């Protein structure tokens, strides 16, 4: 509280409260919550990130295995539950996020992720690639790639400890259940890699979530500005009035 009080620009205080972070999370939730009852179901969540996630991973989230919902309505996720989900989804480098997704993939809850469990989730990705006329990447090939990325102590399964010891764990989860991020990873080019590396050099203290929230805040703000202009509000704007946000 003292840090937040002493800092003149509240947007620089990211660890405790950030208006940018709140704005992005709230807008994302509002977009999915079509009836605006502050609850979202599976069909709402499947639209997240332009239908990026698989039905199988959404089913696991709603089974409340990674985290029990605070929502008291059966089959519905509340705003607080969505906050945990979106931060876990957009920053797969943090330990809470790795734990969240590990529990989702570990179907039998025995503390290890096996080849069969990974194949179960990847099957839907493969089907989606075929439907989109994308060249499918066979599971055997992708399994070798994931093992190389994680370098587990025992190559017959992956533990949470293995994932926490690798910087590429987030990409493994994307391969298994986020098609958009998987395809972006597969078709990544030097420019994207260069930009990402530069961001890390310029702001080494910022997390993947911080970068995501900042990009989305700018995009959402620009959309709001365009909408205001199209509604004619730009013409009647009184500069003496302070903007509400």
Automatic annotation (TrEMBL):
The entry's keywords: Calcium
EF-hand domain location: 93-128
InterPro entries in the record: EF-hand-dom_pair, EF_Hand_1_Ca_BS, EF_hand_dom
GO molecular function per UniProt: calcium ion binding; protein phosphatase regulator activity; transferase activity
Pfam family, one: EF-hand_7
Coiled-coil region(s): none
Entry's Gene Ontology cellular component terms: protein phosphatase type 2A complex
Transmembrane intervals: none
Protein name in UniProt: Protein prenyltransferase alpha subunit repeat-containing protein 1-like isoform X1
Lineage of source species: Eukaryota, Viridiplantae, Streptophyta, Embryophyta, Tracheophyta
